[in-house]
Amino acid sequence: MVMFNLVVDVGNSKCKIGVFEGRKLADYRVLEKSDLPEIGRVANNFPLKAVIVSSVDENAEEIEQLIGKPGIVKHFHSGDTERVKNRYETPLTLGLDRWAAVIGAGAQFPGRNCLVIDAGTSITYDFLPASGVYTGGSISPGIAMRFSALNHFTGRLPLIEFDQALTTVPEGSNTINAIRNGVLQGTLHEVSGFISQYSGPHDELIVIMTGGDAPFLIANIKNTIFAPRIVHEPYLVLRGLNEVIEL
């Protein structure tokens, strides 16, 4: 009988579920946190050999009860793995999604210099050298957060919603487009700057982009000198979590 791994990643507002056959993603779902009981139904649909839960909340035990298979459930933490060593100065404060993404990068590109860019609520930049020893990275406001900050901290600038389907940056010919231009161009320059920073001293750097805003970033960096180095991996965090129980 084919056995599967169940990977559960509970974030601030969403819960992502991946079912893996070995390292192959067989099923993927995104749930509202109010729909967590669905995890139990997914667990009952597959013969499971291992389960891993990563949660920003203190509800890992609740999720384990929903799954109903306590003997095979592992709670993810920021400790070392076989391929990646964690040398972050404050490992207990390291975001579990950041650490899982780094593990995923190390699994997909072992022995390579990797820059992981996760573009979501915040934009995180995490460098994993070919040695597999992780020491840290950078955290920056995400695109939506930048739009929100301009509205919140000024008297008259409107709140602009970021359209993730946008593929180009509009000219700043009016106030709304000037905000769009400033936020989006600023983000693109920041991302390009980080790639350039790590590309210089590290040969054959691979840039792995993930997160909801990654398609926009990739679409606007595709014609730059960095394009050949960029890999889009939307399931990087789930793949990293799966790697912990698949090894």
TrEMBL record:
Binding site for ATP: D9, V10, G11, N12, S13, K14, C15, K16, T121
EC supergroup of this enzyme: transferase
Family annotation (SUPFAM superfamilies): Actin-like ATPase domain (SSF53067)
One of the GO biological process terms: coenzyme A biosynthetic process
Keyword flag Transcription: no
Free-text cofactor note: A monovalent cation. Ammonium or potassium.
EC number(s) recorded for this UniProt protein: 2.7.1.33
Gene Ontology CC annotation, any one: cytoplasm
Residue positions of the active site: D97 (proton acceptor)
Cofactors demanded by this protein: K(+); NH4(+)
Pfam families: Pan_kinase
Annotated metabolic or biological route of this protein: Cofactor biosynthesis; coenzyme A biosynthesis; CoA from (R)-pantothenate: step 1/5
Residues binding K(+), per UniProt: D118
Family membership noted in the UniProt record: Belongs to the type III pantothenate kinase family.
Self-association and partners: Homodimer.
HAMAP family documented for this protein: Pantothen_kinase_3
Biological function: Catalyzes the phosphorylation of pantothenate (Pan), the first step in CoA biosynthesis.
This protein's name: Type III pantothenate kinase
The gene coding this protein: coaX
